[in-house]
Amino acid sequence: MRKNNLILLLLLLVFPRCATDRSEVPSQLEFSDGSQVVIMHPTVGNIETWLYLTSEGILPVEPGTSVLGVYSHQAAYDYSRTAEFIQEQGLENISLMGIEAPLDPRDLFAENANTAVFNRIFKMAQGIIFFGGPDIPPSLYGQEMNILSVVTDPHRHYLELSFLFHLIGGSQVDDFVPFMEENPALPVLGLCLGMQTMNVAAGGTMIQDIPSEIYGKTTVEQIVNMDPDMQHRNYYSFFRTDPDIAARSFHRIIIEEDSHMAAINGGNDLSPYVLSSHHQAVDVIGKGFRVTAWSMDRKVAEAIEHEKYPNVIGVQFHPEVPSLFMEDSMIKFKPGEEAVHSFTSLYPGALGEDFHRSFWNYFSGFFPESVINPGR
Fold first, then answer.
1. How open is the CA angle 196-57-331, to the nearest 5 degrees?
2. Pairing of strands 289-295, 301-306
3. What is the mean pLDDT of residues 160-181?
4. Domain annotation for the chain: domains and CATH numbers
5. CA-closest candidate to residue 133, choices 9, 330, 278
6. 372: pLDDT confidence band, cut at 50, 70 and 90?
7. Model pLDDT, residue 370
8. Which whole number is the average pLDDT over 79-104?
9. SS3 sequence, the chain?
């Protein structure tokens, strides 16, 4: 036994623990109490998106704005990759916070093991962004699981749903006092899954598959022959005959008057094109929200905003994708076609490009003055 222990000690000395070990990722105790913009699910890709939007002045914030990436230690993604990326890039203004206490799905919409740490994050947040991702477990909004739902990271959903419930409250518990009663103007943005999470956290439900449940379509061939404005992802990519085909699609939206979306759209009645990549949609709208944008047939909600907390908004589309703003980023939609168009060439100006740039400029106005950089 002593010989085995000695060999193990020598191995540890010669082969130290790899820097990408999950145990190297920061715990919930390792972050500053200073004011920061909070990014939920801080993957390398999401951090890169933040860096692109801010460095290009698309999201005009002060250089060096402090950012805190928050995640669950039980989540499927290996956040040590993000820690390594931050270190390699010398990003001293970005830190990570891994929440250690696991959440019981029965306690998400009530005070629980993470209520205190949620409150701590809330008190130092200057704004919070919830990014896109996979399907929410249907049991969390009271449904059985459709065979077309794909749940890959339940612990991520547990964390984000519970945190959002603590922020805005929901119909699940009538007497719960949301954190945002203390700071009603806090900016909170939900992107695609982020909007769905807002809705479910507030007591809403989901349509688990748009083609089959809304349109009665059950094959890829049927879906790709539909009106493009009814297609919410590019189903040509399902054939897997060409790896360069985009999984996303573009379609127009109808915007409701007297809403943030209307202000972003410049107050006109045009229907801009947006990037869409989802197969689910909000159904019953959660407590406190109203729908502010729709698909062209008004069957899919494309944006929501909170009626009590004015800077809480969610969009079902993806205004954050860097290629939307790159003239040389070409898109291929169908097998056999040439990739000769970018988003900016397909939908210039009021058709889409102006709307997306306006979106981020408008959202930055929700931030405190200490964050906004008017010179960008």
1. 60
2. antiparallel
3. 97
4. 21-209+253-324+360-364 (3.40.50.880)
5. 278
6. confident
7. 79
8. 96
9. CHHHHHHHHHHHHHCCCCCCCHHHCCECCCCCCCCEEEEECCCHHHHHHHHHHHHCCCCCECCCCCEEEEEECCCCCCCHHHHHHHHHHCCCCEEEEEECCCCCHHHCCCCCCCHHHHHHHHHHEEEEEECCCCCCCHHHHCCCCCCCCCCCCHHHHHHHHHHHHHHHCCCCCCCCCCHHHCCCCCCEEEECHHHHHHHHHCCCCEECCHHHHHCCCCCHHHHHCCCHHHCCCCHHHHHCCCCCCCCCEEEEEEECCCCHHHHHCCCCCCCCEEEECCCCEECCCCCCEEEEEEECCCCCEEEEEECCCCCEEEECCCCCCHHHHCCCCCECCCCCCCCCECHHHHCCHHHCHHHHHHHHHHHHCCCCCCCECCCC
Please state the φ and ψ torsions of residue 92, each to the nearest 5 degrees.
Answer: -70, -20
Mean pLDDT of 113-139: 97
3-state secondary structure 275-300: EECCCCEECCCCCCEEEEEEECCCCC
Confidence band, pLDDT 50/70/90 cuts, at residue 12: very low
Mean pLDDT of the chain: 91
For 173-214, the pLDDT digits (tens) are 999 999 999 999 999 999 999 999 999 999 999 999 999 999
Residues 6+ apart with CB under 8 A from 233: 247, 248, 249, 276, 277, 278, 279
The pLDDT tens digits of the residues spanning 267-301 come to: 888 999 999 999 999 999 999 999 999 999 999 99
Name the CA radius of gyration of the chain, rounded.
Answer: 22
Give the pLDDT confidence score for residue 371 in this predicted structure.
87
Of 129, 132, 167, which Cα lies nearest the Cα of 367?
A: 129
